[in-house]
Amino acid sequence: MPEELSDSEKYPADGSERPALVKKYGHSSWYDWAVNNWGTKWELCEFFGVEREELKEQNEGESTIEFGFDSAWAPPINALAHWLEQNEECQATLSYWEGGCDFMGIWDNFDDNEFSPSDYKSDDPFWKSGAGKKLDEDFGLVDSLIDWESQQEEEQKEEESA
User: What are the pLDDT tens digits along the chain (162 aa)?
Assistant: First the structure.
């Protein structure tokens, strides 16, 4: 992020007091720049589980890198798309989930498939194959749904007996 935008708290979000920054960066605030360029308001944080695997046989010299991270309220799809445009020899797949905002998905080389977790119960066939299976493997969503469904059943029983 351009350093000049980081002190934008004291300026109006419409850029009226910093037209030079709007001209230079397209935005006069850190927030607008970040959302437009990264797809989320903050940079990535809390990296975990970094693994690299060298590919063998026909892909000699290539490797896969897998890791997790946190981002603010949205996946950093814009940043990843920009990186891929600059690195055409690379490919990227991004699994994401934000339970509080009710979205999850898989972004695979510019193709985004987004779903709403609340559309599925723990025993839904969605979780058995494809995107649902991958998202459950990455985030343990079925176990979370089972816990939530169990809590809902308990609360309903308590209400009925009261």
Answer: 777 777 656 666 665 667 788 888 887 787 888 787 777 777 766 666 777 777 777 666 777 777 677 777 788 888 888 888 888 888 889 899 998 889 999 999 999 999 999 999 999 999 999 999 999 999 999 999 999 999 999 999 999 988
Q: Is residue 111 part of a domain?
A: no
The number of domains in the chain is 2
The C-alpha atoms of residue 114 and residue 161 are separated, in whole angstroms, by: 39
Which amino acid would we find at residue 11?
Y
Residue range(s) defining the domain that contains residue 142: 120-162
0.70 cut: is pTM over it? Answer: yes
